[in-house]
Design brief:
By secondary structure, the protein is mainly α. It has a domain of 86 residues: Tetratricopeptide repeat domain (Serine Threonine Protein Phosphatase 5, Tetratricopeptide repeat). The protein contains 14 helices and no strands. 41% of the residues are buried.
Length: 266
Amino acid sequence: MKKNFPAFCLVLFLVFITSIAFAQNFLEIKEKATRGDAEAQFKLGRMYDRGTGVKQDFSQAKFWWEKAAAQGYVDAQYNLGCMYDQGEGVKQDFAKAVFWWEKAAAQGDAEAQFNLGNMYDRGTGVKQDFSQAKFWWEKAAAQGLAQAPFNLGNMYYRGTGVKQDFSQAKFWWEKAAAHGDVKAQYNLGNMYARGEGIKQDFAQAKFWWEKAAAQGDAEAQFNLGIMYARGEGVKQDFSQAKFWWEKAAAQGLAKAKEMLNKLKSN
């Protein structure tokens, strides 16, 4: 009778084979990187950054990404911006983060464009400039990055750096909401409920709050409870009000707990 190969031996064998494969892959990539291959330089930097097949070393990650970035490798430029923004393996330096993100953004990197918009909006590493924030967010939004149209909607809703325009706020929030942005969905519900720049429409408010509530937004859940309690755009239904307030209360929303207590006392 053949003896069964012990399970732990099999695991050790697989670990050994995997380590050999990682080592071989690392050497191949390093050889290409040393010869000046930009993609290999980027991959090698990523290996050092994550500690994949090699001891984690942020200084080496930076070294190789700088080589790739100097050759115009956009992902390396973006990652260097992140390193300086977060102070990961380097001294935090927002100006250098902007420097590298500008290079990546100029090549069409949507995340870099979005990040630059944030930097100009906050005045972080650059002089605050809402027109530049808008410029970069519009670039990112054109590539389908959901966070960018949400921020543009906020600009128009508040009139930050632009003339206040509820129709433009709605336009941008609808784009973000279509990508599943929960805050955009919640905000659209508010606009329809209040009739801000649009005809008041409780059915549409309910539609958007339900989308946000399904993603766990406690404020949207609370508002749906209010709708059912008052019978606004829906048939008055206290069991439904209780249902939504319980969901919001389970997330710690104090005002939802207060409404549940009032229900019990009535």
